[in-house]
From TrEMBL:
Gene Ontology molecular function, alphabetical: DNA binding; DNA-directed DNA polymerase activity
Biological-process GO terms, alphabetical: DNA replication; positive regulation of DNA-templated DNA replication initiation
Organism of provenance: Vibrio agarilyticus
SUPFAM superfamilies named among the record's database cross-references: DNA polymerase III chi subunit (SSF102400)
Superkingdom assignment: Bacteria
Name of this chain's protein: DNA polymerase III subunit chi
Coiled-coil blocks: none
InterPro entries hit by this protein: DNA_pol3_chi (IPR007459), PolIII_chi_sf (IPR036768)
Pfam families named in the record: DNA_pol3_chi
Length: 149
């Protein structure tokens, strides 16, 4: 069965700020990659994707996980591929970390989806819409409040 996990960002958490959120996304991607998952990180657009790729290069050597932008990298791919709306992920990805506001059309391609419920009301509404789409697609859903300091 396919799974979708929504991480709820609390307004008073470090993840409510852009830098804290990006750090948490990197943390999750590294966590799943170290478990052997092939990850597709889906940003809103090419600029956001390039921004996340740059953040992955800025981690310490101990934290580094091989990654590439969609369409770049080795033939059999790195553990983390970073793309955006309209870009096609490599065929061998099992898990998507969705950072896009509205995209869920890829959901059936992945066994596991990681998504977020941000703090702003508009972002929460968009997350609710994505949640409904995953539920209608038959995903087993869970919600987790981020407890990361």
């Amino acid at each position: 069965m396919n799974h979708a996990t929504f991480y709820v960002v609390k307004p008073d958490s470090p993840q409510a700020e852009a830098a804290g959120f990006a750090d948490y996304v990197i943390f999750l991607a590294q966590h799943y990659a170290k478990q052997g998952a092939k990850i597709y990180l889906c940003a809103n657009d090419k600029t956001d994707a390039e921004h996340y790729a740059e953040i992955f290069w800025q981690v310490t050597a101990e934290q580094f996980v091989a990654h590439n932008l969609v369409g770049e990298g080795p033939k059999y791919a790195t553990p983390i591929e970073i793309g955006y709306l309209g870009a096609k992920p490599t065929w061998n990805r099992q898990l998507v970390i969705n950072l896009a506001d509205v995209n869920t059309t890829f959901a059936k391609q992945f066994a596991q989806v990681i998504d977020f419920v941000p703090c702003t009301e508009k972002a929460k509404q968009l997350a609710r819409e994505r949640y409904k789409i995953y539920r209608q697609a038959g995903y087993q859903l869970q919600t987790i409040e981020i407890q990361h300091p």
